[in-house]
Amino acid sequence: MKTFAKNLNYQRGAASLIVALILLIAITIVVLFTAKTVLVETQITADNYRTTQATAAASAAMDQAIAYFNNQGIDAGAPAYTNDVEDLPQCGANSSASPATHITLTSGSQTTRALFFFNNVFYDPDDPNNCQGQTSPDNTPLPITYQDRAQITARGWSDDCAAVRTIIQCVGTFDVFNAGKGPRQPFVSKAGVGAFGNAKIINRYNNSSIWSGSILDTSGAAFGTYLRPSNTEITNFTKAELDSDNENANTQLVSNRDAGAGIDVISGDPNLTNASPDEFFNMFFSIDRDTLRGLAEDSDQKLAAGGNPNGMTGVIWIGPDGTPSTTTTNIGGTTVIGSPNVPAIMIINGDLQLTGGTIHGVVYVTGEIKIAGNAVIKGSILSESGNNSGAGTLKLVYVPYGGEGSGPTPFIPGTGAVIAGSWRDWN
What we know:
- The chain has helices at 2-72, 239-242, 270-273, 277-282, 289-298, and strands spanning 101-107, 110-119, 150-157, 164-173, 187-189, 200-203, 210-212, 224-227, 252-256, 265-266, 302-303, 314-318, 328-331, 336-337, 344-348, 351-354, 358-365, 369-371, 376-383, 388-390, 395-397, 416-418.
- By secondary structure, it is of the alpha/beta class.
- The chain crosses the membrane at residues 12-35.
């Protein structure tokens, strides 16, 4: 009996030991599994954080590239590249000779890196919205000064360079001018053309110098309009010759005070006279006043009446939002607005006095135009009120900015836009 009880106690001890071992093994497995799960979750969190950093860096580079494009299009200084992004210096590598723009982004103690470049070698005239020109069937090279669409590649890395993100997006422009082409005449007036002093209006692109809704009044003895010589073509001249402000070079006198209006003057057109101010505006622009003013505001180029636009290009608005200002905006001296490759679209919501300076682009004036000096305008003047006066010597040289054989419309700052549906983060 004692022997049986003793054996039973031994069995109970062995069972307890086995159960304890099983529990110990189970707890060990649970601990190991939990540790592995925590480690995996930590790795996932770290990878997600790195990916977020790389995405943020690439997005920042894309934003900077879009801002660059909106400000100046694809100019000669743009970071252009046509090969694979993998061939460029990567995260932290020496980028001093890289064709791309490399940027460093700092947030607290963390530093991330990114790059961007434009790929726009060819432009397909048959498909203007095709921003990835490498697929162009025509392979037609487009002059660098007129490249107004591009494919942007932006790449960003995490702070430890372990994660990388590449974003590709297309940018282009929208038309500001009606039908994508600027005015067809150097001077257009909704009403008449008042005393224009000794202005010289030069047009070597077509046979129309003045278009007005009423009569033409030219009181200056030296006033004259000049066209390209008979039996010549635009292609006979260089761009510099076509846009020259020398009225005696490659021209013929057509209209003046003594001879009266010639074939290049269209006056008394009821389509202009009967048009409302907004209808007159819409004859030349594809967007309304509010939208155009918004473009100027977005580019920080909306000025108060009388403001100085010297050095500005692109869309410029001077004056209030609604009723035209009674304050005169004076442009003179050595003021330069716009450039041959980057013209200005300047809206004067009020009166304009020209005493000098040079303007490249289209000037739209809602109030009176006063000529009191030797200004040069290469483009067009659009007069909504038709009140024009002065005794200065304005040189108005017609430059069409699109159409009339002048080539593609130059890029106009403020008109850049992202092409919808073009964003992707895969090759």
